[in-house]
Every structure is written in C-alpha cells, then in structure tokens.
Amino acid sequence: MSQKDIGNKTPLHELKTTKEVMKYYDDWSKDNKYNNDMNDWEYSGPKETSQILAKYQKDKNIKIYDAGCGSGLVGLELKKYGYSNFDGADISKELINKVPINLYNELKQLDLNKKIPKKNDIYDVVMCVGTFTFAHVKAQALDEFVRITKKNGFICFTINEAIYIDYGFKSKIDSLVSCNLIKEIEFFKSNYLASKDVNAWLGLYKVL
After folding, report:
1. Structural domain containing residue 179
2. Helix, strand, coil shares of the chain as percentages rounded to 5?
3. Per the structure, how many domains does the chain have?
C-alpha cells in the first residue's frame, strides 16, 4: 500500500522491524478504522481465498489455521462457507481484540517469522491472507506452514505482487515444489485491493 492508502501513516514498505509492524496495526485498529478501511477499499483477499478453498475442500469439519488473522476477516468468510473449526494468530494484539467473540477456537499473538508453537501435521488447511507483503511475514514462513499441515492438506495464501520475486517468495515456492513438498492447485492474480492499485497473487497448494 502507498502513502495515499492509509492517510498520514508511514508507508508499509518503510517499516523495518516487527515492533514497528505491530505498532502500525495496533494504531490502525483504533476506532475500528482497519475494518472500515478494508470494507471501503473492497479488500477481496478473505473472500477470494475462502471461495477457492471451498472449491476443493468439501469437508466443513476440517481444522484450519489462520496465519495473520488480523480482525478475523478470513474467519468470517470461512464461516459463510460452513467452516467453523479454526485457530488464528496475528502480530497485533489490538487487531486480535477486534475478532468477533467465539469466531475462532484459539487466538494467539505471534510473530509468524518465528517457529510456530504447534505440532507437526496438525492442521488440514493453513490460510495466510494479507501478511505476505512489505515488512511482514517472510517467505521462509512457508516452511512452517508446510510443517504444521497434514499430508494432502492445503495451504492457501496471497502474496503482494510487488514482493513476489524480489522478496524470495517465487524461489521459495519453486523450491518446495521441486522437493515434492507441495503441489500447485491454483495460482492466479487476485483482485485483492484493486481500488488502491494493490494486487496480489493467490495460491492454493496441496501438501504432499
């Protein structure tokens, strides 16, 4: 997102540390501004990823991990498709506090650039929507997502197109595919935040 996207806030690409990112979103959450902005900007990531998951995963009882859950926008979309068994994690405690009560089974404040405190092969699906962008979760997090996902489970994510190559996401995904750890199911350009000229790649991959 650029400066014009979020008023007088520092542009995302200028943030350098996890602490800066945390404060950025904590501030953005005040007076429900984050949720209002996402609605006004027609943020399509949660809806598009949930639609794609529903296309391939018909079992509504699966266990889902929402990595970078924010205020619960992905959870709300998943619920529309009949899913209800999900956990969430985000760097911003203030955004987590905006999540509707009882939407998630578990909510944790976590830095997703570090090892996720979960057992191997515990989730059927990992969703990561809106966090693969400037100064946020890095490409190596995909290794953790693969680790905590069951065989034949799915990882569904968006990646800001501006960082897809330069920040190592393409090379990381290509490496995981070449090592037969994941298999591409869907990969296409998402509308994402088209009203703000911010586009993203949307990927759905099966864990092998």
Report:
1. 3-207
2. 35, 25, 35
3. 1
